[in-house]
Design goal:
The protein is mostly beta strands. It has two domains: 31-141; 148-290, Jelly Rolls (Sandwich), CATH 2.60.120. 5% of the residues lie in helices and 44% in strands. The protein is built from one helix and 24 strands. β16 and β17 (195-198) form a beta hairpin. The longest helix has 16 residues, at 15-30. It is rod-shaped and about 100 Å long.
């Protein structure tokens, strides 16, 4: 709802016109942040139709999770600000990045955003001149600017069992000797299962460094994978051990898009034999660089 034009009120306006203009002014003011109490809005077929600037968003039919693809424009003009959060902590809402269609949502960093806490809020601004019309992210509140986590091991004598020789990861083995969880935020370090669970969808920097021993002449490679070895995430390191029992070192790193609840692991393979490998000291770290 737009305000009456500047100079509208003059001596030519009758009571009816003035009353209409005052009602339009009130309607426009009620759309401003803080003008009315927070209003619950429920997703229907991936969309919501807010009636004020301060809303909570609930899932369709109170489902455990739902995606928000579009926000119906209604009477909102270009430049309108909308502040939203999830309605219920048990019902997760995911803001989908540029799903297409009028009223799509464009998230900073170009990735979907999960609202999994009632303390997390997102401020959007309506761009009526975009094609299609778009709600662009202005700011987010209640999110850490950096999510981080890591696993480490030190002075370990636990061998990683190699099931067979391969160069294509068909005989890879997960490094399962991590013994320490690093300090974490918005991610879960779990050395018991030797993986890190991602807390929020976004872009992350993964880094590995470690020292290991094995059989003379064996060629060892390693890389990050996700979801129990389902998908390779990083380029491999490759290292040839040049003496029996000698300790070699290696590292690798990658920037990669991850989804909330993904698990990140480190896997190795012996490219030339079936001998086991022992990581004596190693660390993997995860840090958000865009969400």
């Amino acid at each position: 709802m737009a305000l009456p034009a500047a100079g509208f009120h003059d001596t030519t306006r009758d009571v009816s016109a003035t009353t209409g203009a005052l009602n339009d002014t009130l309607a426009a003011q009620r759309q401003l942040l803080g003008a009315v109490l927070e209003v619950e809005t429920t997703i229907a077929s991936g969309a919501i139709a807010p009636v004020s600037a301060l809303i909570t968003v609930d899932t369709e039919s109170d489902g455990a999770a739902d995606d928000l693809d579009n926000i119906t424009v209604g009477s909102f003009d270009g430049g309108f600000l909308l502040l939203l959060r999830m309605e219920n902590a048990a019902r997760i809402v995911t803001l989908k990045h540029e799903s297409g269609g009028a009223g799509q949502i464009s998230m900073a960093g170009g990735a979907d955003l999960v609202l999994d806490s009632v303390t997390k809020s997102v401020l959007l601004r309506f761009d009526s001149g975009a094609s299609p019309t778009t709600w662009g992210e202005v700011d987010r509140m209640g999110f850490s600017s950096v999510a981080y986590s890591g696993l480490s091991l030190e002075s370990s004598a636990t061998a990683t069992t190699i099931p067979g020789s391969s160069e294509d990861w068909t005989q890879k083995a997960q490094v399962v000797s991590f013994d320490t969880n690093m300090t974490s935020f918005d991610a879960i370090a779990d050395h018991t299962n030797d993986h890190i669970t991602v807390g929020s969808t976004g872009t992350y920097h993964l880094a590995f460094s470690g020292s290991f021993s094995g059989t003379n002449g064996n060629v060892i490679s390693g890389a990050f994978f996700k979801n129990n070895g389902a998908t390779q995430l990083s380029p491999r390191f490759t290292r040839t051990l040049n003496a029996a029992g000698a300790v070699g070192s290696a590292s690798t790193a990658v920037n990669v898009d991850l989804t909330a609840a993904d698990t990140v692991e480190f896997w190795i393979q012996n490219e030339s034999a079936t001998a086991d490998v022992t990581f004596q000291d190693a660390a993997i770290t995860l840090e958000a660089i865009g969400r």
